[in-house]
Design brief:
Alpha-Beta Plaits, 2 domains, about 40% helix, binds zinc ion
Length: about 140
């Protein structure tokens, strides 16, 4: 019996740790980089973040501008906002976006896209197949 346990321990120690973690993998979005310049705030890694979110930049910008209560536009790989904002404020808004428009509420996976059907918007999950009604951005 002892031998069997030892064997099992040895087998387990040879499995890379990643194999156990993979199922609980967290959705990773780069930390926002925001720089205030005069009366404007420059979101420097806008492109990287929307790539990670897998959402159109225009839509994300619209949501973020609305939440910050300002106007924003895209310039190259940056997004610019009128007014001074903190990285923390921006990252809270992005978390909100992810919660509402990226993460599937059924299985909590981020493998979703947004579809429009008969004038209504849905979050469609390719991991579990759920379709969740959402408010348009
Ligand atoms: Zn799902």
């Amino acid at each position: 019996m002892d031998d069997y346990d030892n064997l099992l321990d040895r087998a387990r120690s040879q499995v890379p740790e990643d194999a156990f973690k993979r199922s609980g993998e967290r959705f990773r979005v780069p930390k926002v980089q925001l720089m205030v310049q005069g009366n404007r705030s420059i979101w420097q890694n806008f492109q990287d973040v929307i790539n990670a979110l897998n959402r159109p930049g225009k839509e994300v910008l619209k949501f973020v501008s609305g939440q910050l209560g300002t106007a924003g536009n895209v310039e190259g790989s940056n997004a610019l906002f009128n007014g001074k904002f903190t990285e923390q404020a921006l990252s809270e808004v992005i978390d909100k976006y992810i919660e509402s428009y990226v993460i599937c509420p059924v299985c909590t996976r981020p493998d979703t896209d947004i579809i429009k059907d008969s004038g209504a918007y849905y979050l469609r999950c390719s991991a579990c197949g759920a379709r969740t009604s959402i408010r348009p951005v």
